[in-house]
Amino acid sequence: MNIKRSIVLRVRVVFILVALAACAIPYRIAVVQFQQGEKWRAKAEQVNFQFREVPATRGNIYAADGSLLATSLPFYRVAIDPTMAKDAKFKSGIDSLSRLLSSFYRDKSATAYKRMIQDTRGDKKRYLVLNRKQIGYQDMQKMAKWPIFRDGRLGGGVIFEKVEKRYQPFNSLASRTVGFLNEDEYGAGIEYSFNNYLKGKDGKALFQRLAGGSWKPVFDAEDIKPENGYDVYTTLDVNLQDIAETALRRQLIDRDAAFGSVVVMEVKTGHIKAMANLQKNKNGKGYSESYNYAVGDIGNTEPGSTFKLLSMLALLEENKVSLNEMIETGNGAHRFYNQTMYDAKRGGFGTITIREAFEKSSNVAISKLVDMHFGSSPSKFLAYVEKAGLKEPFGIQLEGEGKPFFKKPGAKDWYGTSLPWISIGYESKLNPIHTLALYNAVANNGVMMKPLFVKAVGRGNSFVETYEPEAIRKSIASEKTIKQLQELLEGVVLRGTAKNILNPDYSIAGKTGTAQKIINGRYTETYYTSFAGYFPADRPKYSMIVVIDSPKGFAAYGGDVSAPVFKEIADRIFALDMELNPVDQSKIFTAESGDPKIPVIKAGKGEDLQGIFEHLGISAKSPAAEEWVKPTLVAERVDLKINETDKPVVPDVSGMPLRDALFILENKGLRVNYNGTGRVIQQSILPGTQLTPNTTINLVLG
User: Which domain of life does the UniProt lineage start with (predicted)?
Assistant: First the structure.
């Protein structure tokens, strides 16, 4: 009896609890629906609809002549809201649309596209990505005319979601200087250093969250339009950049070197006109830009003999020596405490003048002189390093500038041998850009200019920032010392370690550098070679440094490896620069044609030549503006006949300016050497000869 009563009691308790729960559910529903309805509706709205960021269009990066170095191109992802089209429009257009989609993307049949769109419409889903492949602007314009799509966003439901991609028109040219930026807004070069200007200000737009986590844009009056980024105008010259990279890459390949750098600077302004950094790829095949050795920490290394210029500056400023004074180098070896300094030439140079010591790059002579005059006060020597602006970074416009390193007298790592070794470019570290600034200062009569990569930031003709040439040091030495240093640098090319790059058409001043590399804590027979200088020496316009690391082969010194690259680049710049290489007007307007008004133009690009003749008011007819042509005089008219350059044979470049000849021949895979100035008057391989890539062709200009 007690058990039965207990069971009944439990059943009643359970029944009462269930009844209470049953009553609580509709009560709770009522509370949520009526009392808390607004709160939860707002929550749902917040979850399913959000104002999300709309990225601004990134600004462009331009070269000095207005050439586009980097831009953002619009691409589009194609989606559709299939519920937007009316039944009649949908039924009449779906078959054609499906066939067009299948033909364009080539990934599904027309039937598969039709079924996918119809199923989405049947399920009343309002967003379907038709294909993940992004399309360009022209394709987007073409698609906008397709059935259903032609009725637009509201009538046909088509959604072209804009996605921007960064594009460099010149591909890898100056790629490390132009730089990059990743999704975390970290990168290198101008893209990273000027990101705050380039990125603009993002806008906001209303998006709806759909099943699967995707978001569909919903047009709303409260959308905030993005503000596009500012453009950046650089100092780079694409022609000089191409010349520098081509010459550097060729030497790196020939010498199987680890990496190389070239920097070309305008003497008076400090404008960087070209900067190339090429490193051997990890697979050992070819070279590409993966790090800026000219500026970054990894490029900070012992400069070698190019630093002897600073040693001579200190000696001359102290009036310790005269250039014609004699110095004993003996058999090319000199003992400093427990270490021996050696000259590169076996047997030494004997007794020579200080001028000759610099020109021949005698380690023994320079280190003996510095130790003799500054050994008791090494801080005085290092004060000249600071006066020349080489103790600290320049604060250039590119992030990641390496910091120069010099030992401090009295520090734990300072030894009696430190000063002699520092004097010839060891036990210290400089970037190529820092060494170049020193040589540029000598070319600029003592004024050290800050390297400048960007001239302005703005849009169109309106600038928010402009960057004027800036002098780091108004004078690194007295006028007398600067003149003597200029003489020394010219002597290196006339009589010294770089006489192999002497050019009869213009003068070069500079200094070779060869530093042994430290591997596993010991100096080895692996070298860091360099040549720094400027040209023309009598009226300097450009300074340049060439660095090639770990070249292989015989005679792997600065004069043999880096100096020839300097000459090749300088030769081509000199030939292209009208200011340095003015055209003799008497040679342009001659009476070969019988008419002094008609210029003698041997060959060139049809579009360019026709423009010249039109400017002069001369009748000229070109068969195709984009073709290479040769002019012939017919009565009072000039006919421009096609000069065949596309055939697989050696083309005829006679009469062409060097720039055009280089463009055609190098694109044919030929290696070009040339002598003289002006136009091509002779080529070593006859036109029409079977083309063999990597063959060297010699041109004579006149």
Answer: Bacteria
